[in-house]
Write a structure and sequence with these properties.
About 35% of the residues lie in helices and about 20% in strands. The two termini are about 20 Å apart. The chain is an alpha/beta fold and about 280 residues long. It has two domains: about 180 residues, Rossmann fold, CATH 3.40.50; about 70 residues, Trehalose-6-phosphate phosphatase related protein, domain 2 (Alpha-Beta Plaits, 2-Layer Sandwich). The strands form two sheets. It has a nine-stranded mixed sheet, sandwiched between helices. It contains nine helices and 13 strands. β5 and β6 form a beta hairpin. It binds the ligand O=P(O)(O)OC[C@H]1O[C@H](O[C@H]2O[C@H](CO)[C@@H](O)[C@H](O)[C@H]2O)[C@H](O)[C@@H](O)[C@@H]1O. The site of the ligand O=P(O)(O)OC[C@H]1O[C@H](O[C@H]2O[C@H](CO)[C@@H](O)[C@H](O)[C@H]2O)[C@H](O)[C@@H](O)[C@@H]1O has 23 residues, from β8 and β10. The site of ligand L263DTV3 has 23 residues, from β8 and β10.
């Protein structure tokens, strides 16, 4: 099921992780990686078995985290049954500490700008564009009408230049966000500082930053092993898969791959799959 894309063999990656479990970590993107892609972002829940696998892994290694563009409150709701899983939302601009959402101090002052931007998007763009107002981020979805991609991209480029914002392209979505130096790569780099093994699972362009962060760390520290797992999909193309050590075909396969990891720990069986 897992396909090796590089010299690293899956069994080697697993045994090296088990051998250094106290200094190992697993990091997961959410949408398209451990959750299905759907028309309505609000209707998305993790694939069957994902929450249980992440919680199980969190008992076995130093840390497990979800690193997503979703708001931290959304992640908190979806992972309420996995209290040991760390949650980083809005590309690291939010995190959940002791059950409370904390927002990055540099990003927070941009809230009024981003709220106004969401209102402008709703009034200036065609009604078929779904405006997802995430308080500090505005996501403009054209999944319902893919032919609106050009109009959405032009509007975003214009607004980014006018307001000094950053653009992030994704799966039938363009996002505008404050110009703070946080992304999935900076989160993973910081969170894996004390680790010698770190796995990252992703499906989209923004996940490339996390893959790059692991590569960079490997280059600086020969004792460090990064493991990149891509969830293949036609929308992102093969760009991420080419950078990955292993690929799975769809989010529903991620828990199955995690079963292979979990069952390698002494005395462990994977959590039973509810699906
Ligand atoms: O970092 P992620 O957790 O992968 O979040 C990336 C974006 O995911 C969501 O959009 C994507 O999934 C939607 C639901 O399946 C789908 O309708 C949309 O076309 C995809 O782009 C989320 O709604 C965005 O806010 C995230 O930026």
């Amino acid at each position: 099921m897992a396909t090796s894309r590089a010299p690293l063999r899956f069994a080697e990656a697993v045994s090296a992780t088990v051998a250094e479990s106290a200094r190992s970590g697993f990091f997961f993107d959410f949408d398209g990686t451990i959750a299905p892609i759907m028309r309505d972002p609000g209707a998305v829940f993790p694939v069957p078995g994902a929450v249980e696998r992440l919680q199980e892994l969190a008992r076995l290694v130093d840390r497990v985290a979800v690193v997503s563009a979703r708001p931290a409150a959304f992640l908190s709701d979806r992972f309420s049954a996995a209290p040991h899983v760390r949650l980083f939302g809005l590309y690291g601009m939010q995190t959940v500490i002791d059950g409370r959402v904390r927002t990055d101090a540099e990003a927070e002052p941009w809230t009024p700008v981003m709220r106004r931007l969401a209102a402008e998007a709703a009034s200036e763009l065609p009604g078929e564009v779904l405006v997802e107002d995430k308080a500090l981020l505005v996501a403009l979805h054209y999944r319902a009408v893919p032919s609106l991609r050009g109009a959405v991209e032009r509007w975003c480029s214009h607004k980014a230049a006018e307001l000094g914002l950053r653009e992030q392209y994704g799966r039938m979505v363009v996002e505008l966000r404050p110009p703070v130096e946080l992304d999935k790569g900076t989160v993973v780099l910081r969170e894996s500082e004390t680790l010698t093994r770190a796995w990252y699972f992703g499906d989209d362009l923004s996940d490339g930053r996390a893959f790059d962060a692991l590569r960079g760390r490997e280059a600086r520290d020969p004792a460090f092993m990064g493991v990149r797992v891509a969830v293949a999909n036609g929308e992102t193309g093969d760009e991420l898969a080419r950078l990955a050590d292993f690929t799975v075909d769809r989010p529903e396969d991620t828990p199955t791959l995690l079963d292979q990891v979990i069952s390698a720990f002494p005395g462990r069986r994977a959590a039973s799959h509810p699906g």
